[in-house]
Amino acid sequence: MRAAKDIGAGGIEFLPFYNYGYGTPALGHYATYAFGKPAFVDVLTTALETCKAEGLVMDVALGASQGQGVPAKPLTTGLAVQLVYGSLTVESGEEFSGAVPPPNLNWNEDTSFMQPGERFGGSKLIGVSAGAVKSTNQTASQTFVALDEKSLIDLTAEVQNGQLTWRPPIDGNAYVIFATYERYTNQRACVGIPTDVIANGSWVTDKFSAAGAKLVTEFWEQNILTVEVRELLQAVGQHTWEDSMEIQAALYWSESLLDRFKANRGYDPVKYLPLLFHPSTAWGNHGAPYDTTYYLEASEDTGQSKYLQDYRATLDEGYVEYLETLATWAQSIGLSHSCQVAYNIPVDMLAAIPAVAGPELESLGFPEVDMMLQFVGAAHISRHNIVSTEIGAVQTGGYSLTVPGLLSLFHDAFSSGVNLMVVHGMPYGGEEEGSTWPGYTTFQFIYTEMWSPKQPAWQYMNEQMEYTARTQLALQAGNPKTDVAFYLYQDPYRITVKRNGSDLRAAGLSYEYLSPANIISENAKVTGGELDAAGAGYRAFVLDQEDFITAEAAEKLVEFVEAGLPVVIVGALPSKSIGSSSQEAVTKAISRLTQADYPNLKIIDSVDTLVQALNALSVVPRVQVSSQTTGATQNLYHHLRSDGASDFLYVRNKDIPATFDISIEASKDKVPYRLDAWTGKQEAVAVYEHLQGRIRLQVTLQKDQSSLFALGPAPKRSVAHVVSHSSNVAKAFYDDKGRLFIAVDDAEAATVTLSSGETRQIPALIGAENSTLLDIEVGPWNLTVESWVPSLDTTTFKSVKVPINLGLLDVLKPWSEIPAVQNVSGVGIYTADFNSPTLPGGAAVTIIDFGPVLHTLRTWVNGKQLPPIDSFGAQVDISDYLVPAGKRNSIRVEVSSTLFNAVKARVNYIKANGFGPSVPEFYTTAGWQPHGLVGPVTIKTFRRISM
């Protein structure tokens, strides 16, 4: 934890991992250190004390491993329950008399990475029903049976002591008799040893009622919340926390769900329960719970039948109750609640997000910007302006993720408005039974990353972490400002890309998504032509090929249109109600939109003309972009925020290098500043133009590079700025005293036009024949590699550092192409020298460019360390670091590598938990990672001219 603080971490997420809940060779230690045992409480207390001493905050997992359960006596109320069923078939008119079908417990569990349910405990009969079979279809693995809806019958009242006597109608149809049962899932969140209840491990709790939350909070109150822990949590605690749902059930349920269903949906669902065992209600929509799936005849088997929708609406309500119960308890101990909300289970994620103070997603599940935009809108409209992400888990060989790769994931998140990075992860650093060098490795080497001092990059990563912290600081200010809200009904939620968005980005239009539940929230009001003007301020609302809507959302849509909000419908208006009731109300509301002529409502046939439709409705993006590079604007992402006094604009180029013209809405009293998140400097932008209520400026970005701007009050002392210049002016800037300078990249004359209206002519360089404007490639380079290897005792985790002197390199190349170090991990130390430029009066700006940064890079010129260097645009002004003109300068560059090559070279014997990598091919089939300084390293001098 101290090491995390040393590189710039602001807090930690305390996760009692227990090897993902599966146990380790040291399982016997669980009797002492099981979640909730006094020894565990001691560890938590020490962690909290360290946070307090180091100025860190803590999010604390509510349970072992993913935080999804606590120790409890099996079959205790509040543990997770499910529905299962049994069935039998009788022919038309054939009397059945006997025991109702027993439950079929052999449903299709996913045991690839989740704990299976254990088959103990009884099953409680919920109901008995029957239905007529109209057709049967089969695939290689599934049978699909269509039932006649009118034939469905609840036979529960006919059951006596588990016996049923019933004769189906004589109609020529076979009938299926179903018996549906409730039983505990008996899924472990963490294994244990059965010496007592706590040592026996943790069980998954009920996520669809307050009962499951109360089981968790009562366990904490009774076993963890000592006076000391409570006081420390109030001092340094931030959130209680729960990971993404990795829980299984044949059909997700709660002991209270049947009563909730009857009360809120207005009917008894027993005769429809067999229809709910559907692929759409499985974990992650991965497959049908049973090998036979039942659906209604003459209905589309899309997972959107009215009874499935009613079930999921009821499940949504129970899940929100669960979240609200945890939130209330967290507040009672001085914290708030955070979790990775809803996804993987069959509920409406966007409807649940507002119930969580600290909504979180993860880069593993949401790898694309559009996916994250589906998450953040619900948070923003509920005023949860900080959205976190568990970031950096990539399914590949451990120790392979580069620092630029991690930063690129950060940039994706920032582009979507996700503004708190929770880095995955930092493993336990001590010795562990069954593990070899390089130390305890989570997930058996198949996920990144093990960020810790065991990595060669660790000693350099404070620069990247401080860059991240500064960017977050700006992106947590005020409220997001977003141009377009897309309507999104998706229950169950599936993580998929909904739109490429390149046309919107090229037009400068930002967007995110809102669900039916979100648009009926208290902040969803139209003021001054904007939806939620005090928040995101959406300037248009778009429904793209949407069929379903609730009655309340349909009324709200009418309200939006009548209040003047620009609304675009792609295809047809949604006309189907969500659930079995309210179709009449939906039809009535939608008809109001079709029977009147609203100038702000536009219906188009194809999303391909969406931008034109928005233009026709006078929807003006707050940020407009253009570029001379073809297609570049399609890959320029931006996120805008405002706190009233200042605006903050984040821009990120995801593709080819390009120069962009950016025009931002701004009042006349605001001027632009560049916030250099790498160094912490705030610099007034020296080249821009105020025009028609907008600030126009220019930025050049390499691939994956980002830039951060603030628009704020002008300095008290009025300073001229540049509005245009000749092409040989490379840049304009102010010095520390506010004086304006330009840098000219050749010896020719230049022209500059100032905001005062004055045009200045810069003469050609006099005496150019006696001057040196450097444009050189630095080299040769002397290279020494500090190789990180295991000691002779491979059970010792600390690396031995062995120097390898490679001498002079005439040409820079990656280590993977140098035989002596191709399989090496560690730190490379490069040294070289070069001459200083000679210019009359010493008026030079000298820029060094290091080329691609493969991992980390830190540099000294003449013994002085340079400021942190942008990993995606490794250029820095070294003018103030040079010796006098004509003399030699020394340069030292330190680059680090991942630990991947060293691990790959030893893949046959490295172990964690007593086993080697579970997917050795991640190492054996991969090539050696390229590392080192690959250059070319160039130095270019510009003329420095005072304005």
TrEMBL record:
Pfam families: Glyco_hydro_106 (PF17132). Coiled coil: none annotated. This is Secreted protein. It comes from Microdochium trichocladiopsis.
